Queue: 4 jobs
Job 1
Amino acid sequence: MSQIRWSEACERNRAPILAVLQRHFADRRRVLEIGSGTGQHAEYFAGALPHLQWQASDHPDHLPGIAARLQAAGLPNTPTPWPLQAVLSPAPGLGPLPAVPLAFDAVFSANTLHIMSWAHVQALFAGLPAVMADDAVLAVYGPFNHHGAFSSDSNRQFDAWLKARDPASGIRDAEAVDALAAGVGLVLLEDVAMPANNRLRVWRRGR
């Protein structure tokens, strides 16, 4: 049985996300995707942005499916996906870090912050300096609250569903995430409205 997984949401949101990435990743060369999931975004964005090397990563359990999808696509700019995730020990950060150059000038993550616990969100941002170049761009897609308020009834219902499944998960406040970003030297460049009450928030390091 194929290990390739499918997400309808990835198919729906990929074109609006790409429109933003085409602007912010135009002068980038190496992208680290954190939480590649099904690998659909990696396949689509790497195909649409052939000047980029798109490094997929995720929990080890998801890597066979991602690797199978990328191998079937036959793209020259998608190296073997890495096992990488937010970890709390021995110190909060990203791990395990491979023994290769890690100065990525772009990092992308979609639909991850609301799935993990807040402690793991903090660990993800704490780990970014270890993988980012000095002028790196970070783009994060997903739902966000503002000052504790939901942006729509559908997001309120989604948050309740998330918490019923895992009380540690939930839609994050944009201001709290911005504070984590600022703590590692990232400045917000753009906050773009996306379909289905999502946002694509873009930061840059060193500005």
Job 2
Amino acid sequence: MSLSLPPLGRSTTRSDLVAASIRTAILSGQLKPDEVLVERKLADLLGVSKTPVREALIALTSSGLLTPTRGRGLAVRRLEDADVRRVYEMRVLLEPWAAGRAAESPTTDVEEAARALDEAARCAQAGDRLGLMLANRRFHRHLYAGCDNPLVVTALDDLQDLTALGIVTLLWEQWPTWQVEAGEHRDILAAVKDHRPEAAEKLLREHIESSIKRLA
């Protein structure tokens, strides 16, 4: 049988929206580490059936934001310094290389990355730490997505939620370094925009390693 089907792309499903809502509640501190999530309660709060909530909880467990409890429930993950360090050690193996390849590519979306940094600056000025973290997250993704290696992009995507949780619950609580990081982000973006792969790779490696050193 000869079959030719166009790709469907990724749609935003109800479970995606539920996952986004729960993720925001976790990263904003409304849902605390070790807090057990009750499927029915979440469904009632969000005005949806239990099915998209169940699917969202599965996805958030896969990304690392939730962890199973002894009673077969799910709780918000509590990260220790060592957990966050391991996430950054994984990132430093992949993300600098991805930034270097993105700097070589003429199709890397530097404009979207620049807009993310502008949004981060506005959030920092307004004292919106959650918005700042999410804007920085978009910046990193716009850069590494330009490496033209879907396996690397997927691996880094899988670390996004744990990185975000580590930033808001540990790194920025102990070391409020977002002003320094903003300057580092601008330097990394300039290297990618100017097609300087060695500089982009070096700058991003140093950017990530600075967090690893703090957590050592």
Job 3
Amino acid sequence: MTEQDPSDDRAAGQPPGHPAGHPAGQQPPPLPPYAPPGAPTPYAPQGAPALHPHPGPAVPYPPQLYPHGPPGKPPPDSAMWAHLSALLIFIAGTGACCIGFLIAWIGPLNIRGKTADPFIRHHGTEGLNWGITQIVAVAVFGALTGGSIYMAEEQGWPEWVPAVPLTAWGVHLATSFAFAIVGCRRAKNGVLWSYPRPVALPFTKP
């Protein structure tokens, strides 16, 4: 390493030891602030070079979550129970006393009527429509099954005819139960979600 000759600075019109490239009597610009590793990095003051670019505008809140704004806390379990209560009442009530399909709407109606929160009322309405739809489905498929059995025994229709409404009824029940579970998960995750219309006919609105 060679020493710098002070005469070079004098030749350039600068005092000895002054950084090259800056006029004599003028201080170089301050370096931007440095944050040690692991420490929060502050933004540089106005007019100074920034260490990091500004993160930009906030990402819009997902429209499918809480249309009335971010909740600030996890969604309450009441929205999930609007679906789960209807499903459990249907299964347990039908297995115990054969009337569960008639009262599956009681749980969602109770949850829906005790709150003014739009999110909970939406899911309560969906669960209520699901429960009412099951009553309609049992009445329709029950009538078709009973009528096809009568026609097969009394009118000589093929014996496989009653299997058609019974199979359709089974498919409807399996689909309804599957979507009820989906509704529980969506409500638990804070998602504004609705049943497909064949599973929950729109008898009521939030």
Job 4
Amino acid sequence: MEYSKEFKAALSQFSHPDKDKLIFRLLKKDKLLSKKLYFELIDEETTDDKRNAMESYIKERLSEKSKYIGNPKYFLVLIRKLSAEITEHVKVTTDKFGDVFLNLFLVNEILEYNDKLSKQRFDAIYKLYIYLINKIFKALIQIKKLDEDYWLEFDEILSEIDSKIHENLYLEKLCINNGLDFNWLKSGNIPDHFELIVKDIRSQGFLK
């Protein structure tokens, strides 16, 4: 929504007490904005601190929830909730590096449980695998748009994910069938116009 000059001028005429009341009313209705303002104005934790805390949180939560892998549909619901918390972290901190890294970290930590994942029926675990593959594609698109100074850190975790995919036969085949070239799991090998490549893959009915 765009605000007219007249509307902005009218708002500026509010007295300070009225402005304060209005701000607090709005913040009560928008918890995300409250967290963002708190972080920007008075939070002593840095973006790096919060990212590191999210890493620990993801690892801890997955350790607790890995017992539900035998129920893939429910496990995917739990994974989506963790993903939503990463999204909130990014919106609060505007952490572009963390947006990529934490989602790759989530994928990598899930694949730590390859022994349990591999024991599930393929038709039951399929949606989780497709979800993970989509996350990888999205991360590769984002990496291509970020400064090359970050690439080395991404390459370390991409290498781990690559190794774990090859330890999971069904996931490996599904990656291949959905157009993932494992050479792309190194930042310098991500093709130019990679986003268009992914759109083409989707247009052919894959990644669903």
